[in-house]
Design brief:
The chain contains 11 helices and no strands. The longest helix is centred in the first third of the chain and has 30 residues. It is globular, with a radius of gyration of 19 Å. It has one domain. It has 249 residues and is mainly alpha-helical. Helix 2 packs parallel to helix 6. 38% of the residues are buried.
Length: 249
């Protein structure tokens, strides 16, 4: 008798259920990913009147997106590869593309959760109220920025094979992005560094999110930043897919 292949919808539903269950079981790491941007957001309450609500909110969202792509997605890929989960899934009667689509769906949910949480904290604790259009554009630009950092996480997991090394690498990259990004963006590291940061992955994501949060704030510079963000996401994703191995051998 020939084997009966599962329906596409059933296979995808099973993968999504398993991945969301795994994410729930690792909810402590989820809390840590979301905690840092919230703490920074609340600590910058006094800067809202000086730098503007869009600057403060976009910084919190950008920090969270960096954590999701590096601390969450990249480490999860490396951990499951080390455990042989991907190798077992590949012999199942489902397309390998479904495996990654399911993982990305979980990360998209994380981006929605992060952005919503930042908006809620901004409204409740910082008294920031934006028009509905700004919230919609905020979510859309967060997805664009999230694609960049998920691509970066994919590239690191593809380039580095050992899960412990992936963990240490992502922590280092995360630290550099946060520290150089925040202080460089404020001009505290000199004008030259500020210009470099502005067109780095950190800077382009923050630019488009900030522009989306300001009513009528979208400019030609924001459009260029969006194109650069898309280019970063494409290059990182392309290299990440090219270098990625389903096992550690």
């Amino acid at each position: 008798m020939s084997a009966v292949l599962p329906k596409t919808s059933a296979a995808m539903a099973a993968l999504l259920r398993a991945d969301f269950t795994t994410q729930w079981r690792n909810r402590r790491s989820v809390v840590l990913v979301l905690l840092v941007p919230v703490i920074i957001l609340m600590s910058w309450k006094g800067l809202v009147s000086k730098l503007g609500p869009a600057f403060v909110l976009s910084t919190g969202i950008t920090i969270g997106l960096t954590a999701i792509g590096l601390m969450g997605y990249s480490n999860a890929l490396a951990r499951d590869r080390d455990k042989g989960i991907f190798q077992r899934l590949r012999v199942a009667p489902i397309p390998t593309s479904y495996i990654m689509m399911s993982r990305l769906a979980v990360q998209m949910a994380m981006i929605i959760l992060l952005t919503t949480l930042v908006f809620i904290v901004g409204y409740q604790r910082l008294h920031i109220e934006l028009p509905a259009q700004s919230y919609v554009l905020g979510f859309l630009t967060a997805f664009a920025g999230g694609a960049l950092y998920l691509g970066l996480g994919q590239m690191i997991a593809g380039l580095v094979k050992n899960s412990e090394t992936v963990n240490s690498t992502t922590r280092l990259v995360y630290f550099v992005f946060i520290m150089v990004g925040m202080f460089g963006d404020l001009g505290m590291l000199g004008e030259q560094i500020k210009k470099i940061v502005h067109w780095s992955p950190w800077g382009t994501v923050k630019t488009i999110v900030s522009a989306g949060l300001q009513p009528g704030g979208w400019s030609n510079e924001a459009t260029v930043a969006l194109l650069v963000t898309a280019a970063y996401a494409f290059v990182f994703s392309f290299l990440g897919i090219k270098w990625f191995r389903w096992n550690v051998k």
